[in-house]
Amino acid sequence: MKRNKRHKANGNGSANQSVRLEFIHDTAKSVSVAGTFNDWRPGATEMVSVGDGRWLKELVLAPGAYEYRLVVDGEWMPDPRASETASNPFGESNSVLRVNGDREANRRLQETL
User: Fold this and answer.
1) Count of domains observed in the chain
2) Is the pLDDT of residue 90 over 70?
3) How far apart are the C-alpha atoms of 66 and 60, rounded to whole Å?
4) How far is residue 68's CA from residue 91's CA, in Å, rounded to a whole number?
5) How many Å is the maximal CA-CA distance in the chain?
6) Each residue of 4-48: pLDDT tens digit?
């Protein structure tokens, strides 16, 4: 994932953060993201193919922790680039994305991914 510097006020005093998810899969026909930020609806957040098996999606999220999974050609899977995971009720792992209100800390975190 990659964070951009754009942000918006979200009404609670914290700035929303722009977060870019990146995924690489040579043969995928469709990739989407389902998680706590979209009520686990994969059709709500489709990633965009940019060629050479690369998929991107930019999200604007309020500070907080979000669990999510990628849906690749209908198969649910954790994000292989995520640095944190959490167990889910199905005996599998969800990826965890943490967004905080400190843009500089988010930038430093991104540099480590």
Assistant:
1) 1
2) yes
3) 12
4) 15
5) 43
6) 444 444 455 568 999 999 999 999 999 999 999 999 999 999 999
The CATH number that applies at residue 55 is 2.60.40.10
Instruction: Give φ, ψ of 83 to 5 degrees.
Output: -90, -10
Alpha-carbon distances of 5 from 15, 32, 58, 104, 110, rounded to whole Å: 11, 23, 12, 9, 11
How far apart CA 106 and CA 111 sit, in angstroms, is 9
Across residues 52-74, what is the average pLDDT? 97
pTM: 0.78
How many other CB atoms are there within 10 angstroms of residue 22's CB atom? 15
Full domain range(s) for residue 58:
2-112
